[in-house]
Amino acid sequence: MKYNFDEIIDRSASHCVKIDRLKAVFGRDDLIPLWVADMDFLSPPAIAEALIERTRHGIFGYTVPDNGYYNSIIDWLRQRHSYEVRREEITFVPGVVKGIAFAIDAFTRKNDKIIIQPPVYHPFRIVPESLGREVINNPLLFDNGRYSIDFDGLRRIVAENECKILLLCSPHNPAGRVWHEDELKQLAEICYDNNILVISDEIHSDLTLPGYRHRPFATVSEKARKNSITLMAPSKTFNIAGIVSSFAVTHNPEIRKQYLGYLSPRELDQPTIHALVATEAAYREGREWLDEAIAYIQKNITFVESFLKEHIPQIKVIRPEATFLLWLDCRELHLTQKELVYLFVHKAGLALNNGTIFGKEGEGFMRLNVGTTLSTLEKALDKLRKAING
């Protein structure tokens, strides 16, 4: 490989959430951090070089996106996802979760109902509830180690409730599903026919694993295109979450006008200098780095699967189709969730995400971030083996 993903980078004293928040979240700070969804790899050198060059300019005045910024996004989406987008359809937002919150504010009122599909990324529940909306759960179906959308359940929900928004996680976090085109079409049909706006979080779209292809929701049908806001970013893809470089794609002019009507007066659609520079550098020069990162992540996934199968067969990996996050089925350990968390944290010395933060459907599960060095995973899993087997 051209890039060294085995290099261990000291992330202390770098305002790193996964290290600096260990004590507050887990009660101790001597854990191997495998929780927060960023990677321990150096970002593509081209991004750092572009940021350094821009910083040397020395003036950091008011900023406006230029053609280079927009065209880098347009070209990337076309080349990576066969997704045709026009400049006027792209809007900067200061984070995907923030983009979801802004959409909820722009298109719903207090006590309106919003559909989520747990187990799912926890802000999907926390954000609407914090904004005074009612969350309606349509849990994913789980069969033979694979998750799928419960369309019958969704139809019952929309028949019994006046719902305003459905939050779609695509690819899915934490299950790692890459939704098929026919699944997305069916979802689009139900939501369009029932006046339910789809907010599609596609932040992991570039991280599909070998053999899988992401389909942007808006591309699967005209109903999907007319009735959605797609949120994307280079942040997960190139490990630049701290730069805050997300954007929304909205094809329907009426929906776009309403969304911008919320964002623009608050200047929430105004990017920082570093967001513009990093986005363009990532999309123009990051392809080779990304391909190698995905290959390394796949190697890590294979290692974790093999290790658990051989040494801790009670823990099953729900094989991901995208992302650097592994959803671990620990139910055969026959522990309560409290006991399961205690095992990982206090016996094994590991910081993973508690499965129940993704909904009650996550009971008996833990989420493991494999976006780290193989040597770190080897050390972590050996500690887990000793904690379970003695």
Plain-language structure description:
The strands form four sheets. A seven-stranded mixed sheet has the order 2-10-9-8-7-3-4, sandwiched between helices. Strands 11-12-15-14 form a four-stranded antiparallel sheet, with helices on one face. It is built from 15 helices and 15 strands. It has helices spanning 17-20, 22-26, 45-57, 67-81, 96-107, 123-130, 151-160, 181-193, 222-226, 235-238, 253-263, 273-285, 287-311, 337-347, 374-389; strands spanning 32-33, 90-93, 113-116, 134-137, 141-143, 146-148, 163-169, 197-201, 228-232, 246-249, 316-318, 325-329, 350-351, 353-354, 365-369. The protein has two domains: 17-44 and 287-385, Aspartate Aminotransferase, domain 1, CATH 3.90.1150; 61-285, Aspartate Aminotransferase, domain 2 (3-Layer(aba) Sandwich), CATH 3.40.640.10. It is α/β, with parallel strands linked by helices and 390 residues long. Its EC number is 4.4.1.13. Residues 30-384 form the Aminotransferase class I/classII large domain.
